[in-house]
Amino acid sequence: MKKIFLVIILLALSAPSIYSQFTLDGQFRPRTEYRHGFGSIIPDAADAGYAISTRIRLNTGYKFDSYEFFVSLQDVMVWGENRQLLPDDENNSFAVFEAWANLKLGRGWSTKLGRQSISYDDERIMGGLDWAQQGRNHDAGLLKYRSEKFMVDIGLAFSQDFDNPSGFQSEGTAYGTTGFFTYKTMQYLYLKQQWDSFSGSLLLLNNGFQNFTGEGDAQIADGVSNLQTLGTHLQYEKGAFGAALNAFLQTGERQNTIDISGAYLLGLEVSFRATDKIGLGIGTELIRGNNTDTADTTEAFFPLYGTNHKFNGLMDYFYVGNHANSIGLFDIHASADFKLGETSSLLTKVLNFRGEQELSSGEKSLGTEIDLVFSKAFNGYGLAIGYSQLFASGGMYELKGVTEDAAASNQNWAWAQLTLKPKFFDSAKGN
User: Fold this and answer.
1) How much helix, strand and coil, in percent to the nearest 5, is found in the chain?
2) Cα–Cα distance between 304 and 150 in angstroms, integer?
């Protein structure tokens, strides 16, 4: 696959004489992290984690009167993961992140086909998850309509793996890839209307998950569980004031016919620009948890394919590969964004967490997190530095399965990230 890099470079070199609207750009994003309680309580006996990872992308796009074409190739490398003189990449992280064509159908209609990042509104339910070095994408087809203030997207996806038919070949279209709410089918309708200072969107999403019975080589396909997520995002902005509301419900079944009843997410954000250099915000989010005693039913909501790192604290204690069928969450937070100069800013955020239901001990309080992010733009690149500290309550130790006596006294996380986005070629600009 790495030969594709050479093909794209050759296309770029020949672009001035062949293509009139060709672009070639890239991204180089190294990030270093110190983890001492990131994602879960770290015991006192455990050592802190430290590593450096790098995401590199090469993007090429072509625009014609009747269509657009885009390819994004990426590799995610952890420094030192490969031994010296290794002929192949051990982690097999080189991938086609995006590869799509958008065909114009006329009168505002188009269809976008292929591997693509799908992101709507504040990315609560569907987002690109750009923070993760690998990002999130979907293999899907979209029918799209755009006017000046109104848009409609109809999305369809059907997942299959021809390269791994062992054990599933006799099952026709059985889909054996599971985990992290990986779906076999997806259908959704997204509508958004914009007014002068107000906008509202509606999302109707269905995901089908392959069910199996048996174990190992003996497992066989056993139908599909369909999960419906329905809701709205409302946003108001006027002058220095802004407000946003999320309201979503889930019903149907999770994978393996787990019935869902009464699952919901409610979120409210209010912002105020106090001065040109100070922005203030306050918000809350309530996510229903599971309060049933049976294994085949749940009341818990999960935000599925959103950019979950953006919500409920940057230390990723909730809904980032975890907390999928737990006690839910009640999150109250406040933030302040300071513009320190023409090219730098500091974000501060304080979040208090409580369970939406009680733990088995009767405890609800989970703790408080403080997030700090400093950002600065330089000539052609950007730098971001972050620090987060968790002050855990008794419920957090119980939730994460580490006693307070065994836990480290300090739960924190620090990181620094450099981002370069070189523009190699843009035929529209003649360079």
Assistant:
1) 5, 55, 40
2) 25
Instruction: Return the residue matching tokens 């799509």.
Output: 100
Backbone angles phi, psi at 18, to 5 degrees: -110, -45
DSSP per-residue string spanning 323-338 = -TTSS-EEEEEEEEEE
Nearest-angstrom CA–CA distance, 260 and 258: 7
Record the pTM.
Answer: 0.92
**Model confidence pLDDT, tens digit, residues 100-153:** 999 999 999 999 999 999 999 999 999 999 999 999 999 999 999 999 999 999
Q: Is residue 64 part of a domain?
A: yes
CATH of the domain at 345: 2.40.160.100
Element (H, E) at 14: helix 3-18
14: CB partners within 8 A, 6+ apart: none
The number of residues making up the chain comes to 431
* Cα 283 from Cα 162, distance rounded (Å): 46
* Assigned domain for 431 exists: no
Tell me the residue range of the domain where 270 lies: 3-426
Q: Find where tokens 């914009």 sit.
A: 194
**Residue 199 carries which side chain, given as an amino acid letter?**
S
Q: Is residue 238 part of a domain?
A: yes
Number of domains in the chain: 1
